[in-house]
Design a protein that fits this description.
Largest sheet: 4 strands, parallel
Number of helices: 6
Distance between the termini: 38 Å
Shape: globular
Strand content: 15-25%
Length: 157
């Protein structure tokens, strides 16, 4: 069974998940006493349903998600890095240095991102795996949209 816990829950996301019968709960950052109580309650719920993997994107989810995973006993923690991290301030980088030892694997979308994570966050390169973003352009070669592109903009495979 798959269940999604998210910090942001859009109408589009709810519709897609509902169509696929995937339960989704919106959670919030534990920034108040009430939030901290909800955080520990969620950790108990996650421990009870025996979640196996936590996969996070972006700073807030990476940092709070790792703390949550450790509290809930989740053994596999995956963080996805999708940008070069130029907006990360000293506070965020310090938080990453605290949680990164608990993260099982980091997925980067490019080798440049991989090396930036290594440089900024001092993560061993062996812990970072690159999975490139990509689109199979062959699916679109025969479409009218592809043919509408000027020949200089068409991609060669």
């Amino acid at each position: 069974m798959c269940e999604l816990f998210t910090l942001k829950n859009t109408q589009y996301l709810r519709e897609v998940l509902e169509e696929k019968n995937i339960p989704c709960s919106q959670i919030s950052y534990p920034t108040s006493i009430k939030g901290i109580f909800k955080f520990f309650t969620l950790a108990r719920k996650i421990r009870k349903i025996k979640v196996n993997i936590l996969h996070s994107y972006f700073e807030g989810a990476d940092i709070w998600g790792t703390f949550l995973a450790k509290l809930a006993g989740i053994r596999v923690i995956i963080s996805s890095k999708r940008d070069m991290g130029f907006t990360k301030n000293k506070k965020i980088l310090t938080a990453y240095k605290i949680v990164n030892p608990f993260i099982t694997k980091i997925i980067s979308v490019s080798d440049a991102v991989k090396h930036q994570v290594n440089l900024q966050e001092k993560v061993n390169l062996d812990k970072i795996v690159t999975i490139y973003n990509g689109v199979d352009i062959n699916k679109f070669r025969n479409s009218s949209h592809y043919k509408a592109f000027p020949s200089g903009l068409r991609l060669n495979s």
